[in-house]
Amino acid sequence: MHYRQLNRTVAITTGLIMCAVYVLYTFHACLLSGINRSIKQTAAVTMASSTIAITTSAAPAPLPQVRILGSIVRIVPLVDDMTLKQPATTLRLLAPNTTDASPKYRFLRQQGLRPSRHLPDALIIGVKKSGTRALLEFIRLHPDVRAAGCEVHFFDRHYAKGLAWYRHHMPPTIEGQITMEKTPSYFITREAPRRVRHMNPATKLLVVVRDPVTRAISDYTQAKSKKRDMKRFEELAFTNGSTGGVVDTSWGPVRIGVYAKYLERWLEHFPPAQLLFVSGERLIADPAVEMGRVQDFLGLKRVVNEKHFYFNSTKGFPCLLKSEERSSPHCLGKTKGRNHPRIDGVAIDRLREFYRPFNQKFYHLTGINFGWP
Ligand SMILES: Nc1ncnc2c1ncn2[C@@H]1O[C@H](COP(=O)(O)OS(=O)(=O)O)[C@@H](OP(=O)(O)O)[C@H]1O
């Protein structure tokens, strides 16, 4: 009897102990998971509210502590988010308000480099229809160059909008990259040299030039593509509408080819060493060589070379194997490399004669013989 009572007491005590252990275990598990959940939520709110909240706390916040059944327990957050471990600058750069999504740019952001917009260091100022787009697209292959995609026309049309407006039209760059823009009409804009110098007297100026006769025909071809009923080239290039008349210098396509006249204005405001003259003909015949000169002038490592180009025999022009925007081979658009209309040989000869003294003067001013016929 005494023995049976003892057994029962042991069984009851054991049962009570097990119950107590179970209750304590359940209590602890609930408590811990509750704390863990609240930590996760706090971290998520902190992340979502702004990156600044994370970036401004330079010293790491002390880990929260709780007292559980007399023991001090440090709560380690179980937030599975690697971004929390990244440096503050990286987090700021990953913020969604950064707009430039080009692959090159994304890569720079991942490196923790902070981009900002700057006024141009170098400008392609002209000359219209000489290969300015080709030059811009080719130099943009360089990782240290970023350029505005469109012609901004600040120094001719939008000058009143101010330099802040102009800067806003520039792409973001990081330290060491140069900012560029091309607007071919700057070359012939009377106020442009003074305005550019006012912006920055150290601005580097690139001028692409091409045989002025071919350039005039190219200019005419472009105008005719927009206005089908345009008169013939020969009618517009001479005062009485035929090659019997004098060359009509009031007609834009002819006037622009008098390069020496416009260059003299630029030389009143900039030393010759700040201008580089790029041959439009050589940019087609041997783009890599011409791009070597351009990179030297801009103080860049020669990165753009013959490996970037291939000659597209259908288009009749050098094209790019890849570029900032596209990784597949491509040529410039349809408006570059148009077929020119056939022009009367007498008109061509008359124009060549007309330009010859101006070309000689241009060769003299630049120190380069471009070899135009
Ligand atoms: N690689 C390549 N592909 C196509 N076209 C090329 C190239 N390199 C130079 N060119 C010549 O560029 C001429 C157009 O010059 P621009 O870009 O300065 O024209 S514009 O002033 O911006 O309208 C354009 O003139 P057109 O041939 O009359 O169309 C071309 O002769």
TrEMBL record:
Disulfide bonds: 319-331
One GO MF term attached to the UniProt entry: [heparan sulfate]-glucosamine 3-sulfotransferase activity
One GO CC term on file: Golgi membrane
Localization per Swiss-Prot or TrEMBL: Endomembrane system; Golgi apparatus membrane
Pfam families, sorted: Sulfotransfer_1
Topology of the protein relative to the lipid bilayer: Single-pass type II membrane protein
UniProt: 3'-phosphoadenylyl sulfate binding residues: 129-133, 210, 218, 336-340
Sulfotransferase domain sequence ranges: 120-356
UniProt keyword terms in alphabetical order: Disulfide bond, Glycoprotein, Golgi apparatus, Membrane, Signal-anchor, Transferase, Transmembrane, Transmembrane helix
Membrane spanning stretches: 12-35
InterPro entries: NST/OST, P-loop_NTPase, Sulfotransferase_dom
Family, as annotated: Belongs to the sulfotransferase 1 family.
Annotated protein name in UniProt: Sulfotransferase domain-containing protein
Organism encoding this protein: Anopheles farauti
Lineage: Eukaryota, Metazoa, Ecdysozoa, Arthropoda, Hexapoda
